[in-house]
Amino acid sequence: MNKAVKWILVIAGSAVALIVIAVIVLSMVVDVEKYKPQIEQQAAKAIGRTVTLGGDLKPSFFPWIGVRLSDLHIGNPPGFKEKDFVSVESVEVRVKLLPLLSRHIEVKRFVVDKPFVVLEKRKDGKGGWEDLGPPAQDSPVKKKEEQPPAPSGELPIKGLMVGEFAITNGQILWIDQADGTRKAVKEIDLALTDVSFDKPIGVAFSALADQKPVELNGTIGPLGSQPGKSPLPLELAAKLLDELDVQLTGRIDPSAKPPTFDLAVKVPEFSPRTIMDRMGQKLPVETADAKALDAVALSLNLKGTPENIAVSSGKLKLDDSQATFSAQARDFNKPDLKFDLNLDRIDLDRYLPPPTEEDVSAETAKQPPADSAGQKTDYGPLRRLILDARIKTGELKVKNARIQNIEVRISARNGVLRMDPLKLDLYQGNLAGNGTVNVQQDKPKTALKMSLNGVQAGPLIKDVMAKELIEGAMAAQLDLNFSGDTPDLIRPTLGGKGDLRFNDGAIVGIDLASMVRNVQASFGLAQKPSEKPRTDFAELQLPFSITSGLFKTDASRLVSPLMRVLAEGEAHPVQ
């Protein structure tokens, strides 16, 4: 037995020695250059594009089998302005020979220098990257019969180790002939370290996108002995303009059906205003406060599948505001959405556009909007929408009005949007209400109910309108309904009823008591410069009803210490 083993080893060693000698001799005597036309022809046949090798072709056979080539060009199809789809200054690949016999791949070098990729899109919409690969066979049935049997799922290799993997000085050019767009990503560098199945792979990527620096660093993996058959850990950090960091940790499981992910996303504080300024662009919105959108931070967890995404532990900082949130999105064809938002405070006036002279003149003129009867709104997305949203806000300032303890729930099912409840506190009082918008038909139907109690009208009107009109504790009951989505459609369909009351207040600017005594005094002509005309009252009540846009009141009354005023009348809708 020992002699047999000895002879087997001798034979195997001799075979390996013969292979090594053959490879060395082959590398010395074979002139690869004369085979370049055949190589170009076979490569072109495989990818369906012209292939040219303008530089040297230098193979190596032992102990590393590999090749180094230069001046590689892959052409664009006919009809494109750019001649090349891909060009590369040099490519070098070296793989250790003997480990290949045991299905282990050991790569010494895989380096691509100065690749230039042109993504050109013609005016007819066809891209130069389309239809890559060999042309379709004339007989698809025969092609199917010639295909090898489906793999069993096991990889054809047992091990992988890469010493150097790099793409250097790359460039990608995007050209859209339809709109004349031309964008470039330059100085592309990609380096992978510790490339194997059993270690995390290091990733270092950098580029200039329109002359703006972009970086991506971190690790991916380990891949495992069967890549794609087990969860893939990720720990990546991207940076834009040295200002915006996006950190991503967690794992993706491509083996699940459907694939799943569990990721944590963190964006440390950054300034959108600074980023847009460095990019030479303006913010998408102009804000009244020039310092708004100057400090934003975000963190959240993402979990689920491409068809069902859940967001948890969400935290958002927006300047001086802090918010926590969670959300879920599924069945994106509808879509089916659910989210909860809890905001501590926000001053919306900072983020609204600043008032302009055009806005002021338009508000003063109060011109009716242009006729939009010919424009129809597509309510299809709202009919499909499934929504369950809850929003809470501690403090809100909008149009100088200050509101506290806002709580609102919005839901949508089968084309019916509901707001119930709506609760908030304002100016020592509170408001509660609900509403529905039904878009099941082309003309939406809306119903609103509101209850207002104890609101101090004077400070509210002064903050919102910068005027003094009326004072007192305000209460109201409103029940309104209408159809349509434009003023011209809403006015003739408006209906409902309401009751507006003010207690222990005054009408500022008119002195009805003095009017009885002196007409001149009633309009303030005889008041002292420091005084304003006013009519104090114990109660002011304005009950009303609306039918087909016609406003009517039968028993409006004002009760003051000196008089009692009763009024009734109606008002037709403005055409």
Describe this structure in words.
The termini are far apart. β9 (201-209) and β10 form a beta hairpin. This protein has helices at residues 2-29, 36-47, 140-146, 272-278, 357-365, 380-384, 457-465, 487-490, 512-517, 519-522; strands at 51-53, 57-60, 64-75, 84-96, 104-121, 159-176, 181-193, 195-196, 201-209, 212-220, 232-240, 244-253, 260-270, 296-305, 308-318, 321-330, 336-347, 386-398, 401-413, 416-426, 429-438, 445-456, 470-483, 495-508, 534-547, 550-559, 564-571. It is elongated. Mean pLDDT is 83; it is low at 1-23, 141-147 and 363-373. With 575 residues, it is of the alpha+beta class. Helices cover 16% and strands 51% of the residues. It has 10 helices and 27 strands. It has a 27-stranded mixed beta sheet that branches.
What's the SSE blueprint?
Elements: H1 2-29, H2 36-47, E1 51-53, E2 57-60, E3 64-75, E4 84-96, E5 104-121, H3 140-146, E6 159-176, E7 181-193, E8 195-196, E9 201-209, E10 212-220, E11 232-240, E12 244-253, E13 260-270, H4 272-278, E14 296-305, E15 308-318, E16 321-330, E17 336-347, H5 357-365, H6 380-384, E18 386-398, E19 401-413, E20 416-426, E21 429-438, E22 445-456, H7 457-465, E23 470-483, H8 487-490, E24 495-508, H9 512-517, H10 519-522, E25 534-547, E26 550-559, E27 564-571
Parallel strand pairs: 5-6, 17-18
Antiparallel strand pairs: 1-3, 2-3, 3-4, 4-5, 6-7, 6-8, 7-9, 9-10, 10-11, 11-12, 12-13, 13-14, 14-15, 15-16, 16-17, 18-19, 19-20, 20-21, 21-22, 22-23, 23-24, 24-25, 25-26, 26-27
